[in-house]
């Protein structure tokens, strides 16, 4: 058959988790930077493709398309073998089955999280430098700014709960991709749960490491702010709110959803 049995998947997950936890810090870090950038590519592409879609195709279909395109990010992570914090919450399976080590798991989570952040910021820097956000009379940048603004305006519990929903589905995507024996199955296995989490409006900590810093850069451009209709409404788009109102609750929610 084209996929493994449940027992085989569970054993594979334990094996993969153990291998991830045993990676050297430098390798973990490098693969973590790549994963942060890969998720950033998915985020950037989703904005580019859907920035003017709602007025033609409606909000619901736009969310569906945004999620569909965003799934490219996780496909790159899993098929290219990068290290993503949210997917690595599954290392806990090995720890719970007494084959993994709690300390090694936390070491992996820490370094991969930091590296994902760096990779995301690297891509923000590159994408800002491309000037692609000026497309459509700054409409692409305006959409990116609106997304960042909405994310920092979430309540703490809203962000936390959306984090749970997100990584529940992301880890199911990783699980289904692991279940498949061929690359087509892996791609479909990743696509549906990721599309579902994004279209539902859930929150992913690593994606937000791209979306919100991009917004923080774009808010300095008055044309983008005016195009977004956000003049005088961006007092909440700050580094402090990025961490306190979004990144911390979303990360905690992601850990619970994924574990």
Would you summarize the structure shown here?
This protein is mostly helical. It contains 14 helices and no strands.
Q: Topology, please?
A:
Elements: H1 6-21, H2 25-50, H3 54-57, H4 59-70, H5 72-80, H6 85-88, H7 92-96, H8 102-130, H9 135-152, H10 156-179, H11 183-200, H12 205-218, H13 222-228, H14 239-258
Helix pairs in contact: 2-4, 2-5, 2-8, 2-12, 4-11, 5-11, 8-12, 9-12, 9-13, 10-11, 10-14, 12-14
Structure, explained:
This protein has 259 residues and is mostly helical. The chain contains 14 helices and no strands. The longest helix is centred in the middle third of the chain and has 29 residues. The protein is globular and about 55 Å long. The mean pLDDT is 97.
Low-pLDDT runs? none
Instruction: Let me know the number of strands.
Output: 0
Q: Could you estimate the helical fraction of the residues in percent?
A: over 70%
| Largest sheet descriptor | none
Q: In DSSP terms, counting alpha (H) and pi (I) runs of 4 or more, how many helices?
A: 14
Would you identify the CATH H-level superfamily?
A: Glycerol uptake facilitator protein
Structural class: mainly alpha
The level 1 CATH classification is Mainly Alpha
CATH architecture label name: Up-down Bundle
SSE string:
HHHHHHHHHHHHHH
Tell me the number of structural domains. 1
The CATH topology assignment is Glycerol uptake facilitator protein
Strand content of the residues, in percent?
under 5%
* Spatial separation of the terminal alpha carbons: 28 Å
What shape does the CA trace take? globular
Rg calc: 18 Å
Mean pLDDT: 97
Protein name: Formate/nitrite transporter
GO cellular component, one term: plasma membrane
Transmembrane segments: 28-49, 69-96, 108-128, 159-178, 190-212
Main location: membrane
């Amino acid at each position: 058959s084209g996929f493994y049995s449940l027992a085989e998947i569970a054993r594979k997950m334990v094996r993969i988790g153990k291998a991830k936890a045993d990676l050297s810090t430098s390798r973990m870090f490098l693969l973590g930077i790549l994963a942060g950038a890969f998720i950033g590519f998915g985020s950037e592409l989703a904005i580019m493709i859907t920035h003017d879609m709602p007025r033609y195709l409606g909000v619901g279909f736009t969310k569906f398309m945004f999620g569909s395109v965003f799934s490219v990010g996780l496909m790159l992570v899993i098929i290219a073998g990068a290290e993503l914090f949210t997917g690595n919450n599954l290392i806990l399976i090995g720890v719970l089955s007494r084959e993994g080590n709690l300390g090694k798991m936390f070491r992996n989570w820490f370094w991969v999280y930091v590296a994902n952040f760096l990779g995301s910021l690297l891509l923000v820097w590159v994408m800002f430098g491309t000037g692609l956000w000026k497309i459509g009379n700054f409409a692409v940048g305006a959409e990116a700014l609106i997304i960042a603004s909405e994310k920092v305006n979430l309540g703490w519990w809203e962000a936390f709960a959306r984090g749970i929903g997100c990584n529940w589905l992301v880890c199911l995507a990783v699980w289904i991709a692991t279940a498949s024996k061929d690359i087509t199955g892996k791609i479909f296995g990743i696509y549906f749960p990721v599309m579902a989490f994004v279209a539902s409006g859930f929150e992913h900590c690593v994606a937000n490491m791209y979306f919100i810093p991009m917004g923080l850069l774009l808010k300095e451009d008055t044309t983008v702010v005016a195009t977004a209709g956000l003049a005088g409404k961006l007092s909440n788009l700050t580094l402090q709110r990025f961490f306190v109102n979004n990144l911390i609750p979303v990360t905690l929610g992601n850990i619970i959803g994924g574990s």
